[in-house]
Amino acid sequence: GYFKKLIDNSEGNPRSLYAMVNKQMDRKQIKPLPDFTENIQELATSFNKFFVEKIDKIRNNIELCPKPNLDEDLGPDCCLMDFEPTTIEEVSEIIKEAGIKCS
Length: 103
Fold this sequence. Notes:
With 103 residues, the chain is mainly α. The chain contains four helices and no strands. It is flat.
């Protein structure tokens, strides 16, 4: 019927499909940036507030890790002269385990 035709018309175009779904569900997109204003001081203040709040959200979502104890005796056999390169998979796994999300 009607919805199948709408979906078929969006085939191969995910942006169009999501826009159609959002329209049908009456979802309104929240504007992430402040409205333009003729008052340049007000506009600058709005941008500043937006980015300060964004940074605060990011900082609040990052779990603080305990600092390593650098005074700890590592022993006479410990040598920190050679480092092996890491892989993309290792870094990805560390990020996944840390639960850090970017927005």
